[in-house]
Write a structure and sequence with these properties.
The chain has 210 residues and is mainly α. The chain folds into two domains: 75 residues; 123 residues. Helix content is 60%, strand content 0%. Helix 6 packs antiparallel against helix 7, helix 6 runs parallel beside helix 8 and helix 9 crosses helix 10. The protein is globular and about 50 Å long.
Length: 210
Protein backbone atom coordinates (compact mmCIF):
# COMPACT_ATOMS: atom_id res chain seq x y z
CA UNK A 1 0.00 0.00 0.00
CA UNK A 2 2.76 2.59 0.73
CA UNK A 3 4.20 2.02 -2.76
CA UNK A 4 0.83 2.48 -4.48
CA UNK A 5 0.09 5.61 -2.43
CA UNK A 6 3.57 6.98 -3.07
CA UNK A 7 3.13 6.64 -6.81
CA UNK A 8 -0.22 8.43 -6.68
CA UNK A 9 1.37 11.29 -4.72
CA UNK A 10 4.21 11.54 -7.21
CA UNK A 11 1.73 11.64 -10.10
CA UNK A 12 0.36 14.80 -8.49
CA UNK A 13 3.87 16.21 -8.07
CA UNK A 14 4.81 15.74 -11.74
CA UNK A 15 1.48 17.07 -13.03
CA UNK A 16 -0.24 13.93 -14.33
CA UNK A 17 -3.43 14.91 -12.52
CA UNK A 18 -3.37 18.46 -13.83
CA UNK A 19 -2.31 21.88 -12.65
CA UNK A 20 -2.38 23.64 -10.31
CA UNK A 21 -1.56 20.66 -8.13
CA UNK A 22 -1.73 20.41 -4.31
CA UNK A 23 2.05 20.01 -4.24
CA UNK A 24 2.58 20.65 -0.53
CA UNK A 25 0.16 17.91 0.53
CA UNK A 26 1.52 15.54 -2.13
CA UNK A 27 5.10 16.03 -0.94
CA UNK A 28 4.08 15.55 2.70
CA UNK A 29 2.24 12.31 1.96
CA UNK A 30 5.04 11.09 -0.32
CA UNK A 31 7.41 11.60 2.60
CA UNK A 32 5.20 9.49 4.87
CA UNK A 33 5.14 6.69 2.29
CA UNK A 34 8.90 6.82 1.84
CA UNK A 35 9.39 6.70 5.59
CA UNK A 36 7.25 3.58 5.74
CA UNK A 37 9.24 2.08 2.85
CA UNK A 38 12.49 2.63 4.75
CA UNK A 39 13.78 5.49 2.59
CA UNK A 40 14.30 8.11 5.28
CA UNK A 41 16.62 10.40 3.33
CA UNK A 42 14.15 10.50 0.45
CA UNK A 43 11.33 11.18 2.93
CA UNK A 44 13.26 14.15 4.31
CA UNK A 45 13.73 15.54 0.81
CA UNK A 46 9.99 15.48 0.17
CA UNK A 47 9.24 17.07 3.53
CA UNK A 48 11.69 19.84 2.67
CA UNK A 49 9.98 20.30 -0.70
CA UNK A 50 6.67 20.39 1.16
CA UNK A 51 7.91 23.27 3.32
CA UNK A 52 9.13 25.10 0.22
CA UNK A 53 5.78 24.76 -1.59
CA UNK A 54 3.43 27.75 -1.43
CA UNK A 55 0.40 26.59 0.52
CA UNK A 56 -1.81 27.97 3.27
CA UNK A 57 -2.66 24.56 4.71
CA UNK A 58 -1.14 22.63 7.59
CA UNK A 59 1.29 20.61 5.48
CA UNK A 60 4.54 22.44 6.23
CA UNK A 61 3.87 22.14 9.96
CA UNK A 62 2.98 18.46 9.61
CA UNK A 63 6.17 17.86 7.61
CA UNK A 64 8.26 19.41 10.39
CA UNK A 65 6.48 17.28 12.99
CA UNK A 66 7.00 14.10 10.95
CA UNK A 67 10.70 14.82 10.56
CA UNK A 68 11.12 15.52 14.28
CA UNK A 69 9.32 12.27 15.09
CA UNK A 70 11.77 10.38 12.88
CA UNK A 71 14.68 12.08 14.61
CA UNK A 72 13.37 10.80 17.94
CA UNK A 73 12.75 7.24 16.74
CA UNK A 74 15.26 6.55 13.96
CA UNK A 75 15.00 2.78 14.21
CA UNK A 76 11.31 2.93 13.36
CA UNK A 77 11.82 5.17 10.34
CA UNK A 78 13.93 2.88 8.23
CA UNK A 79 17.53 3.12 7.18
CA UNK A 80 19.29 4.31 4.07
CA UNK A 81 21.67 2.21 2.02
CA UNK A 82 24.40 4.74 1.31
CA UNK A 83 25.98 2.58 -1.40
CA UNK A 84 22.65 2.68 -3.25
CA UNK A 85 22.18 6.42 -2.77
CA UNK A 86 25.53 7.21 -4.37
CA UNK A 87 24.34 5.66 -7.64
CA UNK A 88 20.96 7.40 -7.82
CA UNK A 89 20.19 10.56 -9.82
CA UNK A 90 19.79 13.67 -7.68
CA UNK A 91 17.03 15.51 -9.54
CA UNK A 92 14.61 15.07 -12.42
CA UNK A 93 16.01 15.96 -15.83
CA UNK A 94 15.34 19.50 -16.96
CA UNK A 95 14.41 20.05 -20.61
CA UNK A 96 17.25 21.17 -22.89
CA UNK A 97 18.10 24.85 -23.19
CA UNK A 98 16.89 24.84 -26.80
CA UNK A 99 13.49 26.57 -26.69
CA UNK A 100 12.08 24.14 -29.26
CA UNK A 101 12.72 21.24 -26.88
CA UNK A 102 11.36 22.80 -23.71
CA UNK A 103 8.24 21.63 -21.95
CA UNK A 104 5.10 23.74 -22.20
CA UNK A 105 4.96 27.13 -20.55
CA UNK A 106 3.36 27.49 -17.08
CA UNK A 107 -0.39 27.04 -17.23
CA UNK A 108 -0.20 24.57 -20.09
CA UNK A 109 -0.30 20.83 -19.59
CA UNK A 110 3.15 19.32 -19.91
CA UNK A 111 3.71 16.56 -22.47
CA UNK A 112 2.97 13.03 -21.28
CA UNK A 113 6.51 11.97 -22.16
CA UNK A 114 7.98 14.57 -19.80
CA UNK A 115 5.59 13.78 -16.96
CA UNK A 116 6.10 10.01 -17.23
CA UNK A 117 9.87 10.47 -17.39
CA UNK A 118 9.79 12.64 -14.28
CA UNK A 119 7.54 10.16 -12.47
CA UNK A 120 10.04 7.39 -13.10
CA UNK A 121 12.89 9.66 -12.07
CA UNK A 122 11.14 10.63 -8.83
CA UNK A 123 10.86 6.93 -7.95
CA UNK A 124 14.47 6.29 -8.94
CA UNK A 125 15.76 9.31 -7.00
CA UNK A 126 13.97 7.96 -3.93
CA UNK A 127 15.62 4.57 -4.39
CA UNK A 128 12.27 2.84 -4.81
CA UNK A 129 12.99 -0.08 -7.14
CA UNK A 130 10.15 -2.34 -5.94
CA UNK A 131 8.19 -4.23 -8.61
CA UNK A 132 10.04 -2.36 -11.40
CA UNK A 133 7.77 0.65 -10.87
CA UNK A 134 10.41 3.18 -11.96
CA UNK A 135 11.47 1.02 -14.90
CA UNK A 136 7.86 0.71 -16.09
CA UNK A 137 7.57 4.50 -16.36
CA UNK A 138 10.72 4.71 -18.48
CA UNK A 139 9.38 1.96 -20.74
CA UNK A 140 6.14 3.94 -21.15
CA UNK A 141 8.19 6.91 -22.36
CA UNK A 142 9.95 4.66 -24.86
CA UNK A 143 6.99 2.68 -26.15
CA UNK A 144 3.59 3.97 -24.98
CA UNK A 145 3.44 7.78 -25.17
CA UNK A 146 3.88 10.14 -28.07
CA UNK A 147 7.31 11.73 -28.38
CA UNK A 148 7.50 14.13 -31.33
CA UNK A 149 10.94 15.16 -32.60
CA UNK A 150 11.26 18.08 -30.20
CA UNK A 151 10.90 15.62 -27.30
CA UNK A 152 13.52 13.17 -28.55
CA UNK A 153 15.58 14.00 -25.46
CA UNK A 154 12.98 12.24 -23.29
CA UNK A 155 13.69 8.92 -25.02
CA UNK A 156 17.45 9.34 -24.60
CA UNK A 157 17.05 10.04 -20.89
CA UNK A 158 14.50 7.21 -20.51
CA UNK A 159 16.98 4.73 -21.99
CA UNK A 160 19.66 5.91 -19.55
CA UNK A 161 17.34 5.82 -16.53
CA UNK A 162 16.08 2.36 -17.52
CA UNK A 163 19.71 1.26 -17.73
CA UNK A 164 20.37 2.67 -14.26
CA UNK A 165 17.29 1.02 -12.76
CA UNK A 166 18.20 -2.33 -14.29
CA UNK A 167 21.82 -2.05 -13.17
CA UNK A 168 20.72 -1.30 -9.61
CA UNK A 169 18.55 -4.43 -9.76
CA UNK A 170 21.53 -6.49 -10.93
CA UNK A 171 20.19 -7.08 -14.46
CA UNK A 172 23.37 -6.14 -16.26
CA UNK A 173 22.62 -7.40 -19.78
CA UNK A 174 19.34 -5.48 -20.25
CA UNK A 175 20.93 -2.47 -18.55
CA UNK A 176 23.74 -2.42 -21.09
CA UNK A 177 21.26 -2.75 -23.97
CA UNK A 178 19.37 0.36 -22.85
CA UNK A 179 22.55 2.32 -22.22
CA UNK A 180 23.72 1.61 -25.76
CA UNK A 181 20.41 2.89 -27.17
CA UNK A 182 20.63 6.22 -25.33
CA UNK A 183 21.50 8.98 -27.81
CA UNK A 184 24.38 10.60 -25.96
CA UNK A 185 24.15 13.72 -28.12
CA UNK A 186 20.81 14.48 -26.45
CA UNK A 187 22.09 13.93 -22.90
CA UNK A 188 23.91 16.27 -20.55
CA UNK A 189 27.68 15.66 -20.39
CA UNK A 190 27.34 13.90 -17.03
CA UNK A 191 24.51 11.68 -18.22
CA UNK A 192 26.34 10.92 -21.46
CA UNK A 193 29.29 9.72 -19.39
CA UNK A 194 26.96 7.54 -17.30
CA UNK A 195 25.44 6.03 -20.44
CA UNK A 196 28.89 5.33 -21.85
CA UNK A 197 30.00 3.63 -18.62
CA UNK A 198 26.86 1.48 -18.43
CA UNK A 199 27.19 0.45 -22.07
CA UNK A 200 30.59 -1.14 -21.55
CA UNK A 201 30.95 -4.89 -20.93
CA UNK A 202 32.03 -5.92 -17.46
CA UNK A 203 35.10 -7.94 -16.72
CA UNK A 204 34.30 -11.63 -17.40
CA UNK A 205 34.62 -12.61 -13.75
CA UNK A 206 32.31 -9.79 -12.64
CA UNK A 207 29.72 -10.36 -15.35
CA UNK A 208 29.46 -14.06 -14.56
CA UNK A 209 28.56 -13.28 -10.96
CA UNK A 210 29.15 -15.47 -7.91
Amino acid sequence: MPLYTLKECLKIVVGLYGQPAPAAEAHFRAGICLRDLGRLDAARQHWQRCRESPDDGPWARLAEEAERACDRTPHHCGTVTSALDKRLPKAVTAPPADRRQRQNTPGQRRPQAVMRLHLGEELLIAGVLDHDQALLEFLKVLHAVESPPHLAWTKAVAHLRAAQALALAGRIGPSRDHARQADQALLSPDDAARAEALSQPLEPSREAGP
